[in-house]
Amino acid sequence: MRVIVASTGEQLGVMKIQDALRVAQQHGLDLVEVAANAIPPVCRIVDFGKFKYELAKNEKEKKSNAASKMKEIKFRVNIDKHDYDTKLRHAEEFLDKGNKVRILLQFRGREMAHKEIGMALMKKIEANLETMGHPESIPKMMGKNVIMTLVPLPPGKRKRHFFSDHDVAVGDADDEGDDDETEDEEEGEESKD
Predict the structure, then answer these.
(1) Neighbouring C-alpha atoms within 13 Å toward the C-beta of 165
(2) N or C: which end of the chain has fewer CB within 10 A?
(3) Where do the domains of the chain lie?
(4) DSSP 43-59
(5) Of 171, 162, 168, 169, which is closest to residue 92 (Cα–Cα)?
(6) To which H or E segment does residue 151 belong?
(7) How confident is the model at residue 182 (pLDDT cuts 50, 70, 90)?
């Protein structure tokens, strides 16, 4: 088996199990197999308690990161245009950051009699966000809710359509600066004549 001293990263090379155990005992540490499928198998000389703690810590971190990657946005069937645009802008921001987005459409009371309106709204949401993400599954009815999960597209293929007033104002200010430069250049050309 190939043996590595974890604290220094030093590779001791390929050796027999008995020799590796003897070296581990000399260091006052344990011999832990880290890659059983490798040829030859890889072992580390490490404190086993610390090794287990690090593994548990990494697992916990992975679980917390996975939970934060899912964002949820709630819609209603009779949503106003401005509210719709705002929610789509938030969905684009989440998708742009690489998060999955769960779209939840809630029905209340008599709205349940017109499920086709809700499904049409879900199709509209999917169409408006197709440049940022694609559905992981088709919209599904669950009780009084319709749920659809969107997965972000690769970063190079994403294109936002819904911007906040602040983003538009900043973009306009940049454009105005470009216009001033072209006017100055034109005036300079006129004065040369």
Answers:
(1) 1
(2) C
(3) 2-65, 69-157
(4) EEEE-HHHHHHHHHHHH
(5) 162
(6) strand 145-152
(7) very low
Q: What is the CATH number of domain 69-157?
A: 3.30.110.10
Yes or no: say if 122 and 105 are a contact pair by the CB < 8 Å rule.
yes
Q: For residue 149, what pLDDT band results from cuts at 50, 70 and 90?
A: very high
Angle of CA points 119, 100, 133, to nearest 5°: 65
Q: Which residues lie closer than 8 Å to 178 by C-beta, 6 or more apart?
A: none
Q: How many Cα atoms are found within 13 Å in the side-chain-facing hemisphere of 158?
A: 18
CA-nearest of 18, 23, 16 to 7 is 23
Say yes or no: domain 2-65 is CATH 3.10.20.80. yes
Three-state SS for 143? coil
DSSP category for residue 156: G
pTM: 0.53
